[in-house]
Design brief:
homodimer, alpha/beta, Aspartate Aminotransferase, domain 2, seven-stranded mixed β-sheet, three-stranded antiparallel β-sheet, globular
Chain lengths: 416, 416
């Protein structure tokens, strides 16, 4: 063996989802694409807004020179300014172009932020369930995830967060609307978190950053608005992308925005710009950067996701599934009727339904259903969901929810 | 101070080039854009080939669904296959799609390769002068650069490389055509390197990889062809991009290709694909990936760079500058007429000529001139180059070339 030891173990640990993909592909080949109900991936099925194609067409026909050349590592000045203006319109704070770094998606933004902030061994507090990729992102920069539980409705457990703050704490990382639960943290919760961090900051005599991963910010239902972190805590940085609200995850365009009032702003932003360069991103893709100023107020038709959510929630509830109704994103995170979520994922697979076990998100006893899919996939899946529930109930092994098992809050198994 | 200690020191160390940029911008504002001769950056001035715009236009009008969605982390199967076919046509080896990982430029490819191969403390041997960014890329993955000198004509010093091989050696990293020297390693040199690595491999009982960074592969002059690493050593991986040969560095599209005969290929490629995902790249930008199959045989008009090279070489030689004539890339790396290259860069700046000191490439006593610029910039700069040489000669401080000083081969100052 000559490759890195760490990557070898990561490959082994991430092989479960690969096996699921292979199994899914095998089933699609055997039973027909239309008879396999794939809820495993958060790959939006909606097309980008019509305006996106119009803008691309205009940009491609632009005869100006240098449109695909290097630009400053932070991105085009016009794009950064347009994003800053957009944020100023939607927050109390006033942003300038200097507060924005254009990135290779939100994944790029988070790595840029972690590289800037983390010394080896620094801890980042993450409420669970959480997006498993965070573990890898922290590991890239020798950071340590410190996983804390959330309340039964997946709202923030401020006591748990306060209890986790220690000398090594560099940041708290939140994700709202949340993957995998669809939870949107309420303004009151966030204000409480802000006060807690302010207090800890004074007590420890140094900054604890609030990092907010918000790619689903615009994907919210029932008239809810995602509260702004910038209005609640000065030492905050947002990572986001246009992957979900414009349905273009493959194009890798996003940004990081620092709170205009953040301390030592020059160093934080210079660190992020340098990190963007030296991590090998260099800059966010040029053509997409040029499209963004024209698309900041665009959005895919959320009502279609909401319809999916409602159809799925109504049916699963009638079959006896227990869950917190999602307020945003396109994930549903029901409890499994048997304790072993991996076993229940297998049972669903027998019904040609592909989902992801909650243990992959630090929260066993649940499954994640990504409903960014078509109505017909949802309709087709329902009899299978019902049969799997009936079979599980028939075994007499009772549902072991989050509250009962207390499992949620453990380090996610790195399946995804 | 609350950001990471390492990023803070990196910001400080990389501030020199930022000062040069600021100084350049100030001079452009004061003297007029056309009176400042900027040779500081390897940002190609040629426009992408006409075919690129045609292809983009066709792709943007493609009505098919899912064109901007996630695809496998390694990239589109069609794109990987097209790259594999291209490599098979241009090498003795037969490549398959599985040997290719599409990446966010060559910078992305190198980080993916290092993440896959390096355990903390592993050493990578790099012949100097070398692209300073390699230091940062290695540091990202806790690798250690082991810098070795090259011969007077910048060809490989195999004895120096052999002397640097130790228990910690994981790879040798070469870059041909070379930044900053324009050197193209001859097939004979590479065969010698292959034999050396094969011998070391047998002696140490484990693989030493050959990593070749080849973004300038197609930018070669006087009928030279860049020899293939795949034909000389089985344990080889190429990192490359379309940034220079298609003039689209801002779009961040490149790839890594493993030798079809590499040992433990499944693990190496699985590690690279996983690294592409977990470093936050996720995948190379979708639209550019779809363009690549139509552009593999396209190239910018190299004859324009060759004309620049010839004009510059002829003039600088007549002024008394000493240099090895570049065979590829678009850099000239002359000796400085005074020992202190940073001082000579300042002297050129007084002539409104912007260059980069050789010490930024591990090779003091030289400057790098990036001639991927217009003929008029070169013409306009010549009187300044002549005056700076005359002034330096007037000081009586003799030229201190590479051979005399023996400076070349030290760790590059992280100015760039």
């Amino acid at each position: 063996m000559t490759v890195a030891k760490k990557i070898t173990s990561s490959i082994t640990n991430s092989s479960m989802i690969r096996k699921m993909f292979e199994e899914g592909a095998r089933r699609k080949a055997e039973f027909g694409e239309e008879n396999v109900y794939d809820f495993s991936l958060g790959n939006p099925n909606l097309e980008p807004p019509v305006r996106f194609k119009e803008v691309l067409r205009e940009l491609v026909n632009d005869p100006a020179a240098g449109r695909h050349a290097y630009m400053p590592n932070a991105g085009y000045q016009e794009t950064r300014q347009a994003v800053a203006d957009y944020l100023s319109r939607n927050n109390r704070a006033e942003f300038s172009a200097g507060d924005i770094v254009m990135t290779v998606g939100a994944g790029g933004a988070l790595n840029v932020i972690f590289k800037t902030l983390l010394d080896p061994g620094d801890e980042v507090i993450i409420p669970s369930p959480y997006f498993v990729e965070y573990n890898f992102y922290l590991e890239n920069h020798q950071g340590i995830p410190r996983i804390v539980s959330t309340a039964n409705d997946f709202s923030l457990d401020l006591k748990a967060i306060e209890g986790a703050v220690c000398d090594k704490t560099k940041a708290v990382l939140i994700n709202s609307p949340n993957n995998p639960t669809g939870k949107v943290y309420a303004k009151e919760e966030l204000l409480g978190l802000g006060r807690l961090l302010e207090k800890s900051r004074k007590r420890l005599g140094r900054t604890i950053y609030l990092i907010s991963d918000e790619p689903y910010r615009k994907i919210v239902y029932d008239g809810i608005k995602t509260p702004s972190i910038f209005d609640i805590y000065s030492e905050s940085i947002m990572a986001t992308s246009f992957s979900k609200d414009l349905s273009l995850p493959g194009e890798r365009i996003g940004y990081a925005a620092v709170n205009p009032d953040i301390s030592e702003k020059d160093i934080v932003t210079a660190g992020m710009i340098l990190s963007n360069r030296i991590l090998g991103f260099v800059n966010a893709p040029a053509l997409m950067q040029r499209a963004i100023p024209f698309l900041l107020d665009a959005n895919v038709d959320i009502s279609l996701y909401q319809k999916n959510r409602d159809m799925l929630c109504e049916a699963l509830a009638s079959f006896g599934y227990k869950f917190v109704k999602p307020q945003g994103a396109f994930y549903l995170f029901p409890e499994t009727p048997i304790k072993d979520d991996v076993e229940f994922v297998s049972a669903l697979k027998e019904e040609n339904i592909l989902t992801v076990p909650g243990s992959s998100f630090g929260c066993p006893g649940h499954i994640r259903i990504a409903y960014c899919t078509t109505e017909s996939v949802i309709e087709g899946s329902l009899p299978g969901f019902e049969r799997a529930m009936k079979k599980a109930q028939g075994t007499g092994r009772r549902a072991q929810g989050k509250a009962t098992t207390g499992f949620c809050g453990q380090d996610a198994e790195r399946h995804l």
